[in-house]
């Protein structure tokens, strides 16, 4: 009897030990791709697009380097890098705002890298002067208007949207959104803080509703008659026109695209960009991925699938983007979007733009 009990105990002990070892082994393997595998690059990204996934897959096919992506909001990813310090797992930070790249650099989270390939692919005005980050794509913040209720001749500038004729007709998302913060930051750089504040206050008085939803929701609201004009990023229109959701397609077809400030300071642009983290453990692989994402092959995919403007000037914009015509862009340093971000947020809070 005792012999049977002892044998049973030994058998159970062996099983438990095996399971424990297996569990420990799995934990090590989960960490291995992040820390010890030379054929990997780790990316913190606030982008969630199909184009990005396809490009990462193509990069892996070409190089054998796996791309491990951790997604989150830009500020959350930057805070995570600060918190993790030199233990950060990310080799690359990809965010959809030049202002956030400026912030990451200022926090000491990025390092310089020298790549002739990137320098040849991307113009100097779309790269950090210290080579800590580069643009991958460009987007314009335009006016979309109801084709039924607004004539293009009624539109001119961002500033003109504060006119009484637009009372109760303007749609735009929350001031907490980076796109609006950078738009206001650009107007601070161009017109000065006081005039930028007057603009924001005047626009607020013309809102059709309290800010809510994303850029797609503003387009849908114009289409449904909630307001007549919305301020949105161009690529959202392209995505909606090519959506599998017929409601989105129908809404996008009801609006026109207008590039403001063509006779004055130009339409506001921003970028999605990639920076090399200071804590990068796979620096060589990271630079290879950034080089690939700035290549003509990758840039074509960005514009054809996600309807963003290429940052590489050798690549033509998609047919849809070209159908809207060329446009004059704001001529300011992209770093100014980061430098003036604090003032932009202060203005939004002061005037009550939620």
From TrEMBL:
Positions annotated to bind Fe cation: 235-236
The protein, known as: Iron uptake protein A1
Gene Ontology annotations for the cellular component aspect, listed alphabetically: outer membrane-bounded periplasmic space
Gene: futA1
SUPFAM superfamilies: Periplasmic binding protein-like II (SSF53850)
Signal peptide feature range: 1-22
Organism name: Thermovenabulum gondwanense
Metal-binding listed as a keyword: yes
CDD domains, alphabetized: PBP2_FutA1_ilke
Species lineage: Bacteria, Bacillati, Bacillota, Clostridia, Thermosediminibacterales
């Amino acid at each position: 009897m005792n012999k049977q009990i002892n044998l049973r105990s030994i058998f159970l002990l062996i099983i438990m030990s095996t399971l424990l070892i297996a569990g420990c082994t799995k934990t090590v393997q989960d960490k291995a791709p992040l820390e010890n595998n030379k054929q990997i690059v780790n990316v913190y990204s606030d982008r969630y697009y199909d184009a990005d996934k396809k490009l990462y897959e193509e990069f892996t096919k070409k190089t054998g380097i796996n791309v491990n992506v951790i997604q989150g909001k830009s500020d959350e990813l930057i805070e995570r890098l600060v918190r993790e310090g030199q233990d950060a797992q990310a080799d690359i930070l990809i965010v959809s705002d030049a202002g956030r790249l400026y912030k990451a650099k200022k926090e000491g989270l990025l390092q310089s890298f020298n790549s002739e390939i990137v320098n040849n692919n991307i113009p100097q005005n779309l790269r950090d002067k210290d080579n800590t980050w580069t643009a991958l794509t460009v987007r314009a913040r335009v006016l979309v208007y109801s084709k039924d209720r607004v004539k293009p001749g009624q539109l001119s500038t961002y500033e003109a949207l504060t006119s009484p004729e637009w009372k109760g007709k303007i749609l735009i998302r929350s001031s907490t959104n980076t796109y609006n913060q950078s738009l206001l930051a650009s107007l601070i750089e161009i017109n000065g803080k006081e005039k930028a504040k007057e603009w924001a206050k005047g626009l607020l008085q013309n809102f059709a509703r309290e800010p809510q939803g994303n850029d797609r929701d503003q387009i849908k609201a114009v289409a449904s008659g909630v307001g007549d004009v919305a301020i949105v990023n161009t690529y959202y229109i392209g995505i909606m026109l090519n959506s599998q959701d017929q409601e989105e397609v129908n809404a996008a077809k009801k609006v026109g695209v207008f590039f403001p400030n063509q006779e004055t300071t130009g339409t506001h642009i921003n970028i999605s960009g990639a920076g090399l983290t200071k804590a990068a453990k796979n620096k060589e692989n990271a630079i290879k991925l950034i080089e690939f994402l700035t290549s003509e092959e990758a840039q074509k995919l960005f514009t054809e699938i996600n309807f963003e403007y290429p940052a590489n000037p050798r690549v033509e914009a998609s047919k849809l983007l070209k159908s809207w015509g060329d446009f004059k862009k704001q001529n300011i340093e992209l770093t100014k979007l980061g430098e003036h971000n604090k003032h932009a947020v202060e203005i939004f809070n002061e005037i009550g733009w939620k």
